[in-house]
Design a protein that fits this description.
There is one protein chain. The chain has helices at about 1-5, 15-25, 25-40, 75-95, 100-105, 110-120, and strands at about 45-50, 60-65. It starts with a helix and ends in a 19-residue tail after the last helix. The chain is mostly helical. It has a two-stranded parallel sheet with strand order 1-2.
Amino acid sequence: MIIEDEAIAYAVASIDNDEIDRINILKASFRAMHLAIGKLKAAPELLLIDGNRFIKYKNIPHRCVIRGDATFMSIAAASILAKTYRDDLMKKLHTEFPQYGWYRNKGYGTIEHRKAIEQYGLCKYHRKSFRTTKQEGLF
């Protein structure tokens, strides 16, 4: 991938569904960002964050930018890396649990995916804190 080949530094990190359930999706996003920053081979002088919130990372200044992926190439590249790595993970999960259609929905709660949850129940990769069924008001 061009981004990986041309970037001064990049790192990707993820948080599993159990931790997301424990701390919530926003805190998990910040934790994943912190893990990725900690893995960088070159220390950044400024962190550009896509969105309106961030928890400070050590002594590195940061700037939050709403729709930053439309403004900064570095944010757009980070978004592409995150999506690409997530999509690859979803394809791997699909080989283990094909009934959820993860190769198509890439983890998004589509109607098809929700119907599969209704039929087969949750698997070990689903977030338990996320409303997923008809009884929880999603259909």
